[in-house]
Amino acid sequence: MSLKQRDFSDADFDEIDALLSQLTEEELECLAGEVDPDDPHLPPSERCRDQTKKQPTGPYDREKLLKFLEDQGKNEKDWEQNKEYKKEIRGKVWVPPPKPAQEEHPELDHVTTEWDEILSGASEAEIVELAAILGFTGLVNQVQFHAAEKNDSGISYGGWNAAAKSETLKFVPPEPDNKTDVEESIKLLQENDSTLTSLNLNNIKNISHERMKQIIEAMKTNTNCKNLSMANIEMPDSVAKTIVEMLEDNTTLLTLNIESNLLTGLVIADVCRATLKNQTLIDLRLSNQRAQILGTKVEMDIANSISQNSTLLRLGIHFNTLGPRAKVQDVLKRNWDNLRLKRINEKNQQSSANGDEDQE
Question: Taking the complete model, does pTM exceed 0.90, yes or no?
Answer without folding.
Answer: no
